[in-house]
């Protein structure tokens, strides 16, 4: 039933994700970012993302926030505890197509500079909706990928 299943748990050098993982991640649009505060209370959010040179980038965007002017929980958590996990998955009613990748590492919040600018440009290219939001003024979360775990069918072929 799961002819294309694979499982891996791999430490990652700074810019080395396998080609299979890169392809799977490139074809997925949403990830889930897990952060925790200093007491290890978890917080999980769906996010848009892009991968570049062994880093995963997430921007804060201009959509209205629940409490304007208050630092977002994910940003406060990263300041207190930079260890994060990101899960990118595919669900399908055909369970032979199930698959996921978990990326673990340490996050930092970028507020300016070349890396911030380049990450915003990559995110704007991947998600055209972000271009209209003028995201350059917003922070970017940079996840320094240290470890990957994957399971399931990571092929990018879609069943019609």
Structural notes for this entry:
The protein is an alpha+beta fold. It has four helices and eight strands; from the N terminus they run E-H-E-E-E-E-H-E-E-H-H-E. The protein has helices at 19-26, 73-80, 114-126, 128-131; strands at 5-11, 31-36, 42-47, 50-52, 55-59, 83-90, 99-110, 140-153. Strands 1, 2, 3, 4, 5, 6, 7 and 8 form an eight-stranded antiparallel sheet that branches. A hairpin with a 2-residue loop joins strand 4 (50-52) and strand 5. The longest helix is centred in the last third of the chain and has 13 residues, at 114-126. The radius of gyration is 16 Å and the shape is globular. It starts with a strand and ends in a 7-residue tail after the last strand. Residues 1-7 have low confidence and may be disordered.
Short structural description:
The chain is α+β, with helices and mostly antiparallel strands and 160 residues long.
SSE layout and pairing:
Elements: E1 5-11, H1 19-26, E2 31-36, E3 42-47, E4 50-52, E5 55-59, H2 73-80, E6 83-90, E7 99-110, H3 114-126, H4 128-131, E8 140-153
Antiparallel strand pairs: 1-8, 2-3, 2-6, 4-5, 5-8, 6-7, 7-8
């Amino acid at each position: 039933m799961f002819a294309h299943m694979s499982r891996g748990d791999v430490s990652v050098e700074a810019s080395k994700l396998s080609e299979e993982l890169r392809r799977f991640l490139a074809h997925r649009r949403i990830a889930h970012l897990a952060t925790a505060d200093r007491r290890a209370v978890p917080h999980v959010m769906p996010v848009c993302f892009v991968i570049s040179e062994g880093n995963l980038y997430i921007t804060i965007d201009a959509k209205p926030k629940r409490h304007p002017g208050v630092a977002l929980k994910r940003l406060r958590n990263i300041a207190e505890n930079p260890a994060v996990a990101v899960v990118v998955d595919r669900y399908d009613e055909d369970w032979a197509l199930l698959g996921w990748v978990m990326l673990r590492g340490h996050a930092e919040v970028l507020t300016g500079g070349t890396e911030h600018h380049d990450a915003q440009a990559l995110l704007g290219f991947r998600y055209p909706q972000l271009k209209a939001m003028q995201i350059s003024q917003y922070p970017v979360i940079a996840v320094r990928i240290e470890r990957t775990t994957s399971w399931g069918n990571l092929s990018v072929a879609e069943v019609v």
